[in-house]
Amino acid sequence: MTVYLDHAATTPVDSRVLDEMKPFFSRKFGNASSLHFFGREAREAVEVARERVARLVGASPDEIVFTSGGTEADNLAVLGGFEAAHGKKIVCSAIEHPAVLEPCNELERRGAQKALLPVDGEGIVDLNAAPEVICGASLVSVMHANNEVGSIQPIKELARMAHEQGALFHCDAVQSAGKIAVDVRKLGVDLLVFSSHKIYGPKGVGALYVREGVKINPIVFGGGQEHALRSGTENVACIVGFGMACELALRELPRESKRLALLRDRLLKKLLEIKGSFLNGPVGEKRLPNNVNVSFEAVEGESIVLGLDGFGIAASTGSACSSRKLQPSHVLLAMGRRPEEAHGSLRFTLGRSTTAKQVDFAAAKTAKVVERLRVMSPFKPGDDLSKIDFGGHAE
Predict the structure, then answer these.
(1) Which of 92, 171, 238, 321 is the catalytic position?
(2) Rounded to 5 degrees, what are φ and ψ at 302?
(3) Average confidence (pLDDT) per 10 residues, the chain, 395 residues
(4) Which pLDDT score, from 0 to 100, does residue 1 have?
(5) What is the 3-state secondary structure (H, E, C) of the chain?
């Protein structure tokens, strides 16, 4: 049996999405900026996709800017928004994805003041500490749901605090859009990012919502495509696929979200029966319906991933974008986990193809792998490892 439980890293392209894309690789090959029939055909397809993408997040089509993915869209929002606001202070949460943390670090290198919003032990931004941190900010960035531990943030309250300071509010919704309800009007955000390949669309395309009236500066220059915010010939086939993926996600979200939440809780219950295991992140409605993140004492998460791979099970230790780094998760460290606890983390993220049989198989094999690794480990569950240097410090 092969079991894919790493849907937060990427998802397979849905066959219905692929069927929608195929003509645009061959007979409908036009450049969407061309004036002739082939170009008009491509332009019409892009605008239909824009409408579909906008509906997923409750936006207007003219508020959607297509990009090459979530990372570019986050960079455009953070760098472009901060520059347009003539910013002096940038604020983000301590558990942001590198696609946000690194642009914030770049702004700090350029002379901006950077401040981090702390999170509690469940990975949720501390609303009591937030007003002081946000004070004086030009742009505030907080993800809707964390990619490692699945914690859903109080975006509406944080956006209100930012606006009270006259700051723009940016939200990375790459992990939440298509899995839980995302409505830019209800959330009150100015900028919001989501990505195709997280919702069974193709890689290489994402979107930035820019609220009407909000000014941001481009970071890519050229022919002025995408409202002059993202120059470059449009990736028509992938944009079409993204549009179809958004339509399917919106249609199937209520049923699929409930189904995944049941499977998530089933898997979590079985994993927590393993000796020396504990949950990372919140439970219930404060957590993404498809996310499970558990740490195991006295073993390395990377070793568990490799052991599971031998059984045909795909999982991860955290963010796929940093899975090759040996440093402990900055997310878990920010939540107060010790480095050795962070090193022992394992993330399962479920998807449309996940079944109860697969969940049970993954839990049983995880128990076997952990048991085998502990036999070889010099440490045992409950050992005091506080004086051992496992490396890594919170951001």
Answers:
(1) 321
(2) -60, -40
(3) 96 98 96 94 98 98 98 98 96 98 98 98 98 98 98 98 98 98 98 98 98 97 95 97 98 98 98 96 97 95 96 84 67 93 94 98 98 81 56 45
(4) 86
(5) CCEECECCCCCCCCHHHHHHHHHHHCCCCCCCCCCCHHHHHHHHHHHHHHHHHHHHHCCCHHHEEEECCHHHHHHHHHHHHHHHCCCCEEEEECCCCHHHHHHHHHHHHCCCEEEEECECCCCCECCCCHHHHHCCCCEEECCCECCCCCEECCHHHHHHHHHHCCCEEEEECCCCECCECCCHHHHCCCEEEEEHHHCCCCCCCEEEEECCCCCCCCCCCCCCCCCCCCCCCCCHHHHHHHHHHHHHHHHHHHHHHHHHHHHHHHHHHHHCCCCCEEECCCCHHHECCCEEEEEECCCCHHHHHHHHHCCCEECECCCHHHCCCCCCCHHHHHCCCCHHHHHCEEEEECCCCCCHHHHHHHHHHHHHHHHHHHHHCCCCCCCCCCCCCCCCCCC
pLDDT given at position 393: 43
Known catalytic membership, residue 171: no
The topology (CATH level 3) of 15-249 is Aspartate Aminotransferase; domain 2 (3.40.640)
Give the pLDDT confidence score for residue 348 in this predicted structure.
98
What kind of fold does domain 3-8+253-376 have according to CATH? Aspartate Aminotransferase, domain 1 (3.90.1150)
What is the predicted pLDDT for the residue at 43? 97
Residues present in the chain in total = 395
CATH 3.40.640.10 residue window(s) in the chain = 15-249
pLDDT at res. 395 = 36
